[in-house]
Amino acid sequence: MKKRDLSKITDKVCALTFDDGPSEITPLVLDVLEKYNATASFFIVGHNVFRYPENADTMRRAVEMGCTIENHTYGHKNLRDMDYDDLLANFYATQYVVNKVIGEEPIYFRAPGGGANELVYKTIPLPFMIGDCGSADWNSREDDPATSDLETRVAGILRVAHDGHIMLMHDNAGNHITPKALDKALDKLSKDGYTFVNLRELFEIKGITPKAGECYQWVDVYNPETGEPTFRV
Ligand SMILES: [Zn+2]
Fold it and tell me: What is the DSSP letter of 132?
């Protein structure tokens, strides 16, 4: 992955992460990231690249911009229903697909729907990333104003953003509202002094080395629920 000079980043940082792509929405997300000199981490579903080869070009563009590609399983199925063999097959199929396209395997994992159990944590040999999106931005149903309204999504992003935050959003197919919400939110947050980074940059800046089998929802001394200085859940 392309390395940026992080030494000049002294302001608040927020890691941007996108799940469920790549899709036709991902280039729109990349356009917004370019506008704000931002990077992000994309937790991809391997099937989306295997089935739609044009998405491989999008992944290469993301990496060229300094973004990272991470593992969100091959078929986006509930991991809690799987046995050891199925878990490994779902995990390694995406490691393989990403390596084939960009020449490097993912180093972080995110479970579909955040669903995991003891077997999942023991089997997947990478750190688990969680994050918080502030709104159900994967739901692109036009008839559901609670989740499809642009301003609601912007407000959701702004509500949870803080220094060391892992922002969770979705670049799933058909989700045209999220790139628009991202544009508005980054405009406001950059005026508030935020720099937007990918996950690997966030951990490097904060001096943390994530460990396999542990979950990370945010870093730095901020826990929105308890105010405790914690970065693991
Ligand atoms: Zn997902």
Answer: B
